[in-house]
Amino acid sequence: MQGNIACAEGALTAGCRYYAGYPITPSSEIMEHLSNRLPEINGVFMQMEDEIASICSMIGASWAGAKAMTATSGPGFSLMLEGLGYAVMTETPCVIVNVQRAGPATGQATRPGQGDIMQARWGAHGDYRIIALSPWSVQEMYDLTIECFNLAEHYRVPVIFLADEVVGHLKESFIIKPEIEIFDRDKTISDKLFGTVTEDGIPPMPIFGQGAKLLITGSTHNEFGIRKVADPIIQDKLVKRLCNKIDNHKKEICQTESYFTEDAEYLFVSFGISARSSYAVVKQLRNEGIKAGLLRLKTIWPFDEDTLKSIAEKCKVIFVPEMNRGQIVLEVQRILCNKKVVSIPKTRGEAIYPSEIYDECKKYLK
Amino acid sequence: MSEHLYKYLRTDVFPTPFCAGCGHGILMGAILRAIDELKLDFNKMVFVSGIGCGAWIPSPHFATDTLHTLHGRPVAYATGVKLFNPDLKVVVISGDGDLAAIGGNHLIHAARRNIEMTVICANNSIYGMTGGQVSPTTPKDAKTMTTSKGNPEEPFDLCKLTHACGARYVARYTVYHVKPLINSIKKALTTNGFSFIDVVSPCPTQFGRRNKLPNLFEMLTDIKNQSVRYETAKQSKKEELIGKIVIGEYSD
């Protein structure tokens, strides 16, 4: 099955019953597939007039009770950022798939890139946190899409699925596990729709029509949803909780995979399709007797600092291959500020090849 | 507002934020009276609004589900709400800048799709909240903070626009014509499809005082004098309708 189709099927397994989107290469197979599948199971498919309308209608559907998703690529993701900020502020669960292509601007529509990593984290205005995952296989296009929905519903936050053209159009067989954990939001009616006793809590989320008299706004609001656009304490409390509810739960949210890292002297830190090429390089180096290892980030944001620190502790050099001019490497350098961290970037609108990573890292191996 | 309508309101958020002389309070009352007369289940209604003075009519005042969204996007949000739960009655209340400028694309596509919702444009011909800049419905030659020598552009006729796009019910009234406005809202709320009402509402603070209509009385008198019935307008020459407010239900 193709990666994009696996993503669409994963969404349905997770309980997605609303999709709104706008055609864009290389993500369109997701919407094409769902345009047929959703009506079969009483779900709603909607092709909107643009990406702004897509994310907004998805947020509306989420408050009407739907597990909702949209899919796009860089240019569309740029348009969705205002809706992303709104979903953060109103704590609306939803999933945004970004099948990344080479940018900036229209760039190379059919060619892969990983240039939206920092945009996903920082793109909307104001201060906030989101969750972002990155798949390296068709298996994960299925599995991690489900995980995106579970995280969105659990933390009441938009979750961004940072795929890329290679994984999106890759065809592989994969296994559907017999038991899949699905999380559904807590719809208990509470007057405190936007506040918790703790500073990092996630309030329950009733839906429209339940009689909860929901008062939802993208303006700064108190725990009851009432606009407080000039109150310094309420602004501070809200922004802190929006950040804390992600930061303080990193241990539960973050997923990484480590390969040959126990005795590694040379560590590769990568994600998505770049991690797959990195894995090939690590195995080749091990065959040559070089102690190389790979830390693969399944969760990109929030960044798993603790795991990186502990694995990298005994490593001599850390390599960060990625299909951009060096984005995740900035995070790695910040966290491992006393280590030798080497960026291996590629922006040719094609997958980063194992041979390219191999040739570059060889310069640093002793 | 009459106390029998208090059951629809979050009275704890009073007073309303509207300026002295603002017409939006009359519009708020007209909407609630229409709902009351129709005996609609208020708990099954969702009010969606954008950003601006008009968007504050339902949020936070209406004591049911309200979604105060991004500038220009309420119709897109409302589309998602209605499509996922068709049992909900979805009403968009927002201003002319919100629905006709930044949100114009969403408005015309929702009308074209004939999605069942009622869109009420609280049309005060100005960006009130941001301090009185020209909007797509500001009359030609009117003075605003960004057209100090007079508006050089022609205004949008939102009724012609939505009607041409396929809206099932289209009407324009003013807050001066309260009774026909209430009846029109009742018709819109019971329309099986997309309904749109352009409600001309005075803004003495940002529009009137820069255009020789400095208070509510003068603005309402002007609105009354400029209003022409749709049936009369159909028989009139184009030149005769310059600066006029064509009120009534739009039909083919």
Structural notes for this entry:
The complex is a heterodimer of chains A (366) and B (252). Chain A has two domains: 3-169, Rossmann fold (3-Layer(aba) Sandwich), CATH 3.40.50.970; 254-362, 3-Layer(aba) Sandwich (Rossmann fold). Helices cover 39% and strands 20% of the residues of chain A. Chain A has helices at residues 3-14, 28-40, 51-63, 74-89, 117-122, 138-155, 165-169, 232-247, 250-253, 272-287, 305-312, 328-335, 354-362, and strands at residues 16-21, 44-47, 67-72, 94-102, 108-112, 131-133, 158-164, 215-217, 256-259, 266-270, 292-297, 299-301, 317-322, 340-345. In chain A, α3 (51-63) runs parallel beside α4 (74-89). The longest helix of chain B has 15 residues, at 24-38. Helix content of chain B is 32%, strand content 19%. An eight-stranded mixed sheet of chain B has the order 2-1-3-4-8-7-10-9, sandwiched between helices. A two-stranded antiparallel sheet of chain B has the order 5-6. Chain B contains eight helices and ten strands. The radius of gyration of chain B is 17 Å and the shape is globular. Chain B has one domain (20-250): Rossmann fold (3-Layer(aba) Sandwich), CATH 3.40.50.970. Chain B has helices spanning 24-38, 74-84, 96-102, 104-113, 158-165, 178-189, 216-226, 230-235; strands at 45-49, 65-68, 89-95, 117-123, 126-127, 133-134, 169-174, 194-200, 227-229, 245-250. In chain B, β5 and β6 form a beta hairpin. Classes of the chains: A alpha/beta (366), B alpha/beta (252). β8 (215-217) of chain A pairs parallel with β2 (65-68) of chain B.
Topology:
The complex is a heterodimer of chains A (366) and B (252).
Chain A: H1 3-14, E1 16-21, H2 28-40, E2 44-47, H3 51-63, E3 67-72, H4 74-89, E4 94-102, E5 108-112, H5 117-122, E6 131-133, H6 138-155, E7 158-164, H7 165-169, E8 215-217, H8 232-247, H9 250-253, E9 256-259, E10 266-270, H10 272-287, E11 292-297, E12 299-301, H11 305-312, E13 317-322, H12 328-335, E14 340-345, H13 354-362
Parallel strand pairs in A: 1-2, 1-3, 3-4, 4-7, 6-7, 10-11, 10-13, 13-14
Antiparallel strand pairs in A: 4-5, 6-12, 9-11
Helix pairs in contact in A: 1-2, 1-6, 3-4, 10-13
Chain B: H1 24-38, E1 45-49, E2 65-68, H2 74-84, E3 89-95, H3 96-102, H4 104-113, E4 117-123, E5 126-127, E6 133-134, H5 158-165, E7 169-174, H6 178-189, E8 194-200, H7 216-226, E9 227-229, H8 230-235, E10 245-250
Parallel strand pairs in B: 1-2, 1-3, 3-4, 4-8, 7-8, 9-10
Antiparallel strand pairs in B: 5-6, 7-10
Helix pairs in contact in B: 1-6, 3-4, 4-5
